[in-house]
Design brief:
Elements (H helix, E strand, L loop, with lengths): L1 H21 L9 H5 L6 H5 L7 H11 L2 H8 L2 H5 L4 H4 L2 H4 L10 E2 L2 E2 L2
Antiparallel strand pairs: 1-2
């Protein structure tokens, strides 16, 4: 009886870990397209390198700057492309927000974070 309980416990644990790992992408459990929706304040700055970056945009980008994989996935997502985001311009936003701890030199597809 004890060995069957132990087996069920281990099996349950393996299934739980598998579900957690399987559900985690570049941005955790949320898709890059869903995360891109949160960057609505950044659209103007992501289309024009000379546009000022709103504070609301910098606040959102700061969250993503802690996870460069997610930042790249969001800025290269279908939602970002459909919004007219220019990836090479969008990737300059962390620098334009004056973030000292931004992921400088991180490869983001064919682009590099300045």
């Amino acid at each position: 009886m004890a060995s069957s309980m132990k087996f069920l416990f281990v099996l349950g644990l393996v299934l739980l870990i598998g579900a957690v790992v399987d559900g985690a992408g570049e941005c955790g459990k949320s898709s890059p397209d869903n995360e891109a929706m949160k960057l609505a304040p950044c659209v103007g700055a992501a289309q024009d390198a000379n546009a000022s970056v709103p504070g609301g945009c910098c606040a959102q980008i700061k969250r993503f700057s802690q996870n460069p994989k997610c930042l790249c996935a969001v800025l290269l997502s279908d939602t970002a492309k459909a919004s007219g985001v220019q990836p090479e311009t969008a990737l300059t936003i962390p620098k334009r927000c004056n973030f000292a701890n931004r992921p400088i030199g991180y490869k983001c597809g064919p682009y590099t974070l300045p």
